[in-house]
Amino acid sequence: MSSIIKVDQVNKAFGTLQVINNCSIEVEQGSITGLIGPNGAGKSTLFNLIAGTFAPDNGSIYFDGQDITAVPSDQLFHRGLLRTFQIAQEFSHMTALENLMMVPPQAGESLLNTWLRPSLVKDQEAQVRQKALDVIEFIGLKHVRNELAGNLSGGQKKLLELGRTMMVDARIVLLDEIAAGVNRTLLQDLIRNIQRLNQEMGYTFLVIEHDMDMIAQLCNPVIVLAQGSVMMKGTIQEIQQNEEVIEAYFGNDAH
User: Alpha carbon of 79 to those of 47, 63, 72, 110, 140: distances in Å?
Assistant: First the structure.
């Protein structure tokens, strides 16, 4: 398989703190790749660099062979590179269905279109609504589609955030601790939906996660980050048996 994301010798410091240190990773198209490491390893910073939130100090980042180093996140969004957050970013005073229908761009965002091309606006709104209905059924939230998103449980909000990636036909999704605050039942729903999006729709995922059971169920390969650099890449079984990885996670208590 070819790489959809390539990070090549990237560095990032904040003041005197070197967070990402000569880091190189590749994410293969069609994979569900895990990114793990102890707290402070630089995982979220690496996500922010790939997603265009920060620019690296040096090095290069490629998306599907094109250099996207320091390309802003809004431009990457429209190319199909999306990310979720540890804390779900829902529109709390809108319904679950309306949250999905907020996908940009839409003809109705233009005042001229609402005046001069009302039929176009109406047709597109109908298409977006139908797609949102399909997505909300896919992710298993049809029963709460008219509930305010702010009233949903933590797990339901994470499912809704995953559903938003389906509204724009994402090519790769960066999942940042999607299991955080999710009960075990809804976590299995999340895992099944991620697997379906990968297998049925060809989505590629890069997953930051501390829940090793979830990583074991979902991810192959898994990349271990420590002190801003790649320690190793392999299957979850290989990583769990690696003494250096165990030491990085648990230090003197490893044994």
Answer: 16, 9, 11, 21, 27
Q: What angle do CA 148, 151, 155 make, to 5 degrees?
A: 115
Domains of the chain: 3-90+154-253 (3.40.50.300), 91-151 (no CATH)
Instruction: For residue 121, give both structure tokens.
Output: 């606006």
pLDDT band at 111 (very low <50, low <70, confident <90, very high): very low
Phi, psi angles (nearest 5°) of residue 226: -145, 130
How many residues are there in the chain?
255
Cα–Cα distances (Å) from 131 to 71, 98, 127, 168, 197, in that order, read: 29, 12, 6, 10, 15
pLDDT of 246: 85
What mean pLDDT is predicted for residues 190-204?
93
Task: Mark out the alpha helices in the chain (DSSP H runs).
Answer: 43-50, 73-79, 96-100, 111-116, 118-138, 154-166, 184-201, 212-218, 236-240, 243-250
